[in-house]
Structure formats: C-alpha cells, structure tokens
Amino acid sequence: MKILAFDTASDHACVAVQWDEAVHTCKLQGYARHSEHLLAAIAQTFAEKGLGNWQQEIDAIAFGAGPGAFTGVRLACAVAQGMGMALGKPLLALDALALVGRSAYPEGPSGCVWVAADARMGEWYHRWFEVTAGGEWQPRSEPALVSPHSARWDEIAIDPDGTEFRFAGFRLAERWPESWPAPFETRWIDAIAPEALLAAARAAAAQEQFVAADAAQPVYVRERVALTLEEQQALRAKKREAATQSRA
Amino acid sequence: MKGILAIETSCDETGVALWDRASGLVAHELFSQVALHARYGGVVPELASRDHVRRLPQLVARALAQARWTPADVDLVAYTAGPGLAGALLVGAAFAESWAFARGVPTMPIHHLEGHLLSPLMAAPDLAFPFVALLVSGGHTQLLWVEGVGRYRLLGETIDDAAGEAFDKTAKILGLGYPGGPQLAKLAERGDATRFALPRPLIQSPEIAFSFSGLKTAVALAAETVGRDPQARADLAASFQAAVIDVLVAKTVRAVELTGARRLVAAGGVTANARLRARLAAELEALGCSVVFPPPQWCTDNGAMIAHAAAQRVRLGFPVKQDYRVTIHPRWPLPL
Ligand SMILES: Nc1ncnc2c1ncn2[C@@H]1O[C@H](COP(=O)(O)OP(=O)(O)OP(=O)(O)O)[C@@H](O)[C@H]1O
Ligand SMILES: [Mg+2]
Fold first, then answer.
1. Nearest atom, ligand 1, residue B171 CA
2. Torsion over CA: B175, B180, B184, B186 (sign)
3. Could you say which of A138, A160, A189 is where a domain stops?
4. Helix (H), strand (E) at residue B328
5. Pairwise CB contact (< 8 Å): B53 & A74
6. DSSP code, position A176
7. Distance from CA of B1 to the nearest CA of A (A)
8. Is residue A155 within 8 Å of residue A149, measured between CB atoms?
9. Residue A47: pLDDT above 80?
10. Looking at residues B149-154, what average pLDDT do you find?
11. Which of A184, B92, B178, B336 is 20 to 30 A removed from B115 (C-alpha atoms)?
12. CB distance B133 to ligand 1 below 6 Å
C-alpha cells in the first residue's frame, strides 16, 4: 500500500508517506502558516526518498479531517481534494481525535480511551474509542463538544463505573475539572505523531474507507457559528430589556 | 494539454471555468450561496468557507465533464488569490495549488478585481485599450484608467461604503431580504424618485471620489417617516437608487472628461442595475464615449472572468507561479 498522509489541524503540521513497507515522515515545526509550506514539505519528502513517480504509483491520499481548527482542517481537505481530483486517486478522511489517541498511545493498549482536544470557547472536542486486542481503534461515540466545567462526568463517560480506561488529550487550555474522578492513566501530546497518522491511514485503507475527492469533507462538530436574523433580533430585545431593568 | 482551469472562491460564490487556448471558454459552473446566507442577513465567512470546500470539487468535476476534458488537459490553474474573505480564498487557493502541484503544472493567482475589470472583453474581444473602467460591486467602487492588461491606474474610489454595500444596507433598512441590491432595484421600479430629497455626496467636488455612508444615514432617517406604507417605501427606494446613480454617473463623466477616454467599461455586480446601465450609456455616448458592459451573467462573481483574465495574462507573457505555496491576499490593492 502506498499512501500520502498529512494533518494540518494543529500548530505542528505533519506529513507522512507509507511506501509499501517503508515509512517516511516530515514534521513542519511551528510555522504560523502551514498553507505556505505544506506542498513543499510533501515534495521534499518524496524527493528525498527518490520517489519521482509518486503521482502514478500512489494508492490513496489521507488527511486529518477534524474536528479541529476550522481553517486547518479545511486546508487539509482542500489540498487532498485538489491532489486527489488531479490524479484521480481516492482519499481517506482521518478522524482527528483518533490521531490524538494513537499519538498518545502508540503501543495501543487494549481497553477504552477517552480522547479530547481543545475546541476553544471553553469547550473540548471529545470521543470515546475502544482499542481492541488487535490494536484497532474502534469509535464508541460520535465526536462531540463538551464544556468540561459544567458537564457531569457520568453523562460523558460511556461506561462510568465499568471498563478500565485511559485518557489522551491534545493541547487543552483547560485543566482537568475538579468534579471529575481523579484521572486514570493520562497522556498529553503537543503534536500528532507521523507514525500515528500512518497507522490510522493504513487502518482506514484496510477497511476500504476510500472516498472520492469530490465527496471528502472536513468534520467540524461545531455547527452553530452565527446567529440567524431572528436570533439577532431576540438577542437585541433581551439586551434592551436588561438595560431598562437595570435603569429601573 | 488544452488550457486553463480557473477557480473563484473569494466571497459567497463558488465559480469554476475551463478555458481552451484555441477556442476560449468551454465550460463554466457557478454555485451561489445567497440562500445559505439569507437567514443570517449577510455573508457569514465561516459558512461561506464551508460551502466552498463542499461545492468546489463537484463543480470542477462537472466542468470537466461538460468540456469533455480530463485532468491531463489542464496546463495552468488560475485562481482568485484576493481580495476577499481569507477563509474563502484559502479553499480555492489550496485546491488550485495542490492540483497544480500534483500534475506539475504552473498556477496563476488572479486579482479578483482584474477579473471583473476585464470581463467585458469576454463579449467584446476587440475592445481597444485604453479605457476608463467603472468597478461597482459589493466591496468596491472605483474608477480606473486601463492602458492594457495589468496596467491600471486608480483615478478615484469610495472613501467609505461601496455602492453595492449601500444598496444592501439600504435594503436592510427597508426590510428587504438579502442580498438587497436586486430587490431594492425591483422595489424602486414602482417608486417616485423625486419624492425624497436625498443627498448626492461629493457630487459637486471636482475630485474623483465617492462616499455613500451619509446617504445611508439619510435613508435611515427617512425610513422612520414612511413606516409600512408600500408606496412610500417604493418612493424611498427609487429616491435612493436615483441618488446613487446620479453620483456614479457624474463621477464617471468626470473621469472620462479628465482622461479624454473614448471608451468606458463598467463592471461589478451593481452594473446589473438596468437604470444605471441606461443612464451611463446615455450620458457617455453624448460625450462621444462608447460604453461596454459585461453580459449580465458575468456581472457578479464567476470563474469565467478569472479564466479570461489568466488567459490574457498568459497571452501577454506575464510570469506564471510554480512554487506551490498557498498564499492569499485578503486585502490587495489593485493598481499593480
Ligand atoms: N440590480 C442591482 N442593482 C443594484 N445593486 C445590485 C444589483 N444587482 C446586484 N447588486 C449588488 O451588487 C453587489 C454584488 O456584486 P459583486 O458580486 O460583484 O460584489 P462582490 O463580489 O460581493 O464584491 P467585490 O467583487 O467587490 O469583492 C451586491 O452589493 C448587490 O446588492
Ligand atoms: Mg466580486
């Protein structure tokens, strides 16, 4: 299997190539704009390994699809779409939270892993996974948003008293909420590991999760990004009311 | 290898076009997000970006099928690199650069306003330079002296709102839906343009400059007196439209007089306005200056005008880009 994979959802973008048994990686460290450097990093990775004919030989293009920073996941998606359409190659949309989990637990311990990443505005993206004895990361919940300081643990945990589990977190601005149980095994990461990117890509390819370039989409989870006209009106009315009350 | 794939994603329209080097435009696809943004009363940048990344590859696929091209037929990828909404521009730029990178072909970033400005030449390819260009859109109101492709001099522009923006804001004041320009123009057809005496900002001043924010304020004041009276609202719409057109025409006449131009090219979404077209044509032709408008379908944002601008640049030997950096210019002054 020959796969090009990349992720641009965080500060450290990551490019990795699976070329049959060989693995080639490249980390874009701390560039403010991944967009300027991503294609150059891909070109360099192929050039260094002498893979001059990658455009023909590649089987799929995998990208970190989110949830994550909107612009970052959109960049990865648009790059994958453009390359995939131009070359007539299929895409693999990789769940960003699985990438976090795999980066934190490369050894893939079997059991439940709860994964969270910063979603700003006081919220986390999160998702539950079950890692099988064979090292597969099977999602046990949909990716979702949670406000860690107001949410109740027993409503978030898929099995609050049951299975032993671990936690993987990525760049969380917030601290672990005090009302939650003392953390079990907890690992924090600050970048997606290229090996994790490829492991996820291989798994997606093995399960034939290929999508056509014109059907691949980012995953945002946060769908409400603006107020409708009615909501704007309601908000204004509420503010006016509050103002008259405070005057009274 | 046949020609150019062009992509436009600067605001709320996703546009794609294919341009054959020999025969010109061979396919174009456009998706307008107007319905998406209507319930928010204006363009929501994040939603615009999301929709571009959803539609763009589908529109490219449809354009290829329409022209019976394969990806191998594309020898240059042109895209709008600015000005516009950063997130929206990024989708088109990333897609275009990545396509070009994968196939080893060059790109050509295009200035959105150059696309508008040269669009009338799509229907009138023999139009001779130099000419004065009036660019009136949702984000711009400018008069330019155009000596050739890529040779532009700014004669003057708005110091506050763009004319299209003034149409949209006034429409909002009158409770019309989004985007307001076309709806306001429609309402104005039933109105008496002399009913309200609205200001014509800067019309007396000799300089070439526009200002529309005071006019908007005057409309807001007048709107409080009309209430729900349908005829009064139509009259106010007509009075507003007449004021904008008076100013646009007066300053355009001034620019033509100053430059001695024999031709005027008018472009941008507001030139879809039938009254503006008629007035411009009448007053300029009286001065011996011919007026060219883009066909209505190329007035608003579209991919064809980007393909066309790129084709002109290529023909004249302007450099192409081959560094595969995804670089956008959300703010990008035109005179180059
Ligand atoms: N018939 C009309 N009369 C007046 N204004 C109109 C008419 N039709 C469209 N418009 C206005 O044209 C504008 C849209 O034009 P266009 O799509 O060229 O602008 P834009 O792409 O949003 O801005 P820019 O090109 O400056 O970035 C809107 O403000 C709209 O209200
Ligand atoms: Mg425009």
1. 31
2. negative
3. A189
4. none
5. yes
6. P
7. 13
8. no
9. yes
10. 95
11. B178
12. no
